Amino acid sequence: MANGVIMLCFLVLTFSGHYMVVASDPKPLQDFCVADLTSSARVNGVPCKDPSLAQANDFSFSGLHISGNTSNAVGSKVTPVGVTQLPGLNTLGISLVRIDYAPWGLNPPHTHPRATEIITVLEGSLLVGFVTSNPDNRLISKILYKGDVFVFPIGLVHFQQNVGNVNAVAIAGLSSQNPGVITIANTVFGSNPSIANDLLAKAFQVDKTIIDQIQGMF
Amino acid sequence: MANGVIMLCFLVLTFSGHYMVVASDPKPLQDFCVADLTSSARVNGVPCKDPSLAQANDFSFSGLHISGNTSNAVGSKVTPVGVTQLPGLNTLGISLVRIDYAPWGLNPPHTHPRATEIITVLEGSLLVGFVTSNPDNRLISKILYKGDVFVFPIGLVHFQQNVGNVNAVAIAGLSSQNPGVITIANTVFGSNPSIANDLLAKAFQVDKTIIDQIQGMF
Amino acid sequence: MANGVIMLCFLVLTFSGHYMVVASDPKPLQDFCVADLTSSARVNGVPCKDPSLAQANDFSFSGLHISGNTSNAVGSKVTPVGVTQLPGLNTLGISLVRIDYAPWGLNPPHTHPRATEIITVLEGSLLVGFVTSNPDNRLISKILYKGDVFVFPIGLVHFQQNVGNVNAVAIAGLSSQNPGVITIANTVFGSNPSIANDLLAKAFQVDKTIIDQIQGMF
Amino acid sequence: MANGVIMLCFLVLTFSGHYMVVASDPKPLQDFCVADLTSSARVNGVPCKDPSLAQANDFSFSGLHISGNTSNAVGSKVTPVGVTQLPGLNTLGISLVRIDYAPWGLNPPHTHPRATEIITVLEGSLLVGFVTSNPDNRLISKILYKGDVFVFPIGLVHFQQNVGNVNAVAIAGLSSQNPGVITIANTVFGSNPSIANDLLAKAFQVDKTIIDQIQGMF
Amino acid sequence: MANGVIMLCFLVLTFSGHYMVVASDPKPLQDFCVADLTSSARVNGVPCKDPSLAQANDFSFSGLHISGNTSNAVGSKVTPVGVTQLPGLNTLGISLVRIDYAPWGLNPPHTHPRATEIITVLEGSLLVGFVTSNPDNRLISKILYKGDVFVFPIGLVHFQQNVGNVNAVAIAGLSSQNPGVITIANTVFGSNPSIANDLLAKAFQVDKTIIDQIQGMF
Amino acid sequence: MANGVIMLCFLVLTFSGHYMVVASDPKPLQDFCVADLTSSARVNGVPCKDPSLAQANDFSFSGLHISGNTSNAVGSKVTPVGVTQLPGLNTLGISLVRIDYAPWGLNPPHTHPRATEIITVLEGSLLVGFVTSNPDNRLISKILYKGDVFVFPIGLVHFQQNVGNVNAVAIAGLSSQNPGVITIANTVFGSNPSIANDLLAKAFQVDKTIIDQIQGMF
Question: What burial letters (b/e) apply to C55-67, b meaning 16+ CB within 10 Å?
């Protein structure tokens, strides 16, 4: 097994910070409603293909065994399998994601506005945590090893960090076909257009120059 | 009317950063289920009182005309009316909140994990905004004046800032009996225990000393 | 403050009996789904605009500070802010409403088939009440003053009456983007076409002549 | 068959005006959650029995073939089979009801705050109708004969009247374990305590003496 | 009454094994959304007609008093009234079904993936049952007589068999506009294309020749 | 990588036929509601622990890297991580499962009454398929290889079979905290007590002796 672990570690890669996973969607009203990603009609979710034209490929996706490229600032990479990648997920309220972490790589603090996430570690060791809402803002965290499972409740800020010298890999399910990802740093300091630096300086209780410095990174 | 505005402005006060508002909850299975806040039983939501003992007071709350105390670091104060304050809201999926803003006071960037928020300005002028999820992180913002209404979709980061020299007041509805509030600064930099400074330094792409400085404020 | 109150009282106005408020809708499957009110496609709710074309104005509405005209038979007026007025509310399950009451003005008994309502009094004093379902038909009522909050559970018959000699104003949140309003008098005695007078005579246990008289008013 | 019809007509009976039918409840989290009607605990819906003690009788009810007694003011009688009568319905979001109508008997205008109703006529002929919400208040009605099916959308005011000289019988499904019934006449004119007669006089645009007369009947 | 029963028994007929009934659907966002069955647009559920064009006939269906033809292999016939037959049911989460059983006729083991079912016996006597999920696979069954009601929880395998020498008739409500029917025998042994016989032989622990024999019947 | 694959293949094991996965549950009304598995109170889902006593361990589970024992009749084994194994999942609508398959091992045809399932292959190659509901009973199937992802819509009959000479491993997410598993063979032929053999003979169109033979295996 040690060899197996080592071999797999070479697969581990780079960062992105956003991913699409598993969320609790509206109840389906037919066996399935395969997303017609070519439709110009826009509804809550995605319009469906004619069900008689649905094929096995509409319900499948390939490539989740391929490590993501973690050569980026945070050293992690998320590969999503949501309704965009797997159209058969439309209306079904779930998605999957693979996350790769370089040694000490970080999936930085973020929330999913539309999903709870359940994660399991395939390789490596991860420090994971989430923070409860106001007023407690309690950090609940733990180091996970291969085979451990952890849950991040819907909407709460959470993160994972590789705390080992080898690559790490995780798989997660999310309770939405399109959970959404809000990476705190990118959203608050890297929005387009920017949030005014004096507003952020007041929010974070620091000088505007520090805000400018952080905003410059995103 | 100008006098009226000025009088009301004296009501405007101080900060907190958390509030409980209106969210979309499980469908009720009876006319009402008044929260029995004294019960030791714990369920999703709150156990109910015997409905034959329900009184008009169980469905009411007093004091939303009283300005919150904004003498705090951010110059705003939220007064919630959720299931804790108004037990008749239990299972009904909605709540209200009053927000007071000192001149230039800020209700800092935050999310509600369980609610969309609809806000209306009673007095003053507010810069409001929300940021879309990854990868766009688009800031959608606008200055609101008395009588304007704005919506912050569920789970997205949003804020309001008083952009006038007088106090401002707003009322908001939220789609949960207990929407939850995640103030970004408090959650990320002021959790208990703290998130490690090197993790946050990597997430925000700054030196640990800056993280230490921000963490010292919360 | 007394001046402030007096000034605001001049804002209070007239009737309509229907309003659109806040209700618990299907879970959103994307950050937002701004209603495309020009679309001819018809679905549950409203089709969406291309999200890349969404603007801040799609999430806002102006004019809730303007008193409604209460010069009508019941002396009240509801100003709704639902998905029709504020397209950004689509799929988000909430709306707001302003209600103006002339002295002794009445928002007559009605139900919202798709929403719970939470109301707060901005000015004046209101007798509010709701009636439980069969077999108890219990009236739960209370006089509300400025700053009081009250909840009307989804689907139950409720009303508000100004019990003061000055105008009154209230703001309410409702748990639907389109809660619907069923004013009992208009629905039962003023439908188009009319419900047969002998049917209503039997239902209300009165002579048909009385039914004819009431129907003549609507 | 004519004989069969005639025989069944003798089964038709008397009135009540309230019934419990089929509604769309929270999603079940286990195979079933049989209502423990003896529990003093109170939650949304009803606490469950130990599932290992559930018996076939918990999922059944007897007597829906027995005609209700229609010897009452409106000449109809509803026999409900909701969670109170059939505890296995708890959390499952549906119920049934039998309605008997004397000749010209009326199930008077009412709403179900928590359910859509689908009705089928077993014997006789019924005028049925529902009224849309404001501002249209459109009456949609039809005479139903044996074997006809009709739907009353959730929350809308609706009624059925026997328009034949023989008894009539119907069965209906409702989308809640406890749909609730709000009979307009009983709720508005027969609440306990009463709604003030001057308030109702204004709502229905008639003299208080007429309100007093109607209130005297309930 | 005996005559009545006998007369009705002649109505009882033949089989199909699939039916569409009552299920818990997404919350409606307007009074109704009559299915536009001619639309080529495809969404979760069905697009709606212009509500101003809705007619009473859109909310009705005729013919549920007509016995189904039970001259088939299993001796039963289901007549569905779902959104396909009654377009006004769209978004309302409920449907009805009539089931006819020849003497000893069987509505064979099946599931509804999207609905709980509540059944009542109009004529005859039925052995009904459902089986709980793994690991108990407990059979809960009972013989029902005229006027008895029984509930089959969502997703569980269930069946009904006429255990009398005369025809039987039942009416059932289901908590979906389109509950779906999965007849076990047809699905497992009669799919198109077939499931491989060696796979089924392993699943059912029998020789492939027996699988071939069963597959030959469907 | 080949070594890695080979090493992991030794992990693959035995059967069970039931597993608990990810389903779309009622919306949470607080940050989390950790299941109090020691409580004697019974509600839809599970009562909660005092949230102030929640610990990181309540949100975690260990051992999903351990291969299940596939030494059984069908050559597969499911290891569930649902609310029973990971109490923090309560009210959050998702779960995970690991499935091990011996060479040619089968996870036999089954349904999840309360969840859609999304599966990914970690090692080996799997023939997977699901069958649509009546009347089409269309088999949609595909061979999956390492890194492939597939979705089984809620309530539909589905299966996986290892089509290689080495062990296979998969991870799946399911849209419920307690999705339930209905293995067709066990439920129909192995219920307790048994379904009568003549009933099953009619349902499957075979002699009772064949039913007896199959029932003898379960």
Answer: ebebbbbbebbeb
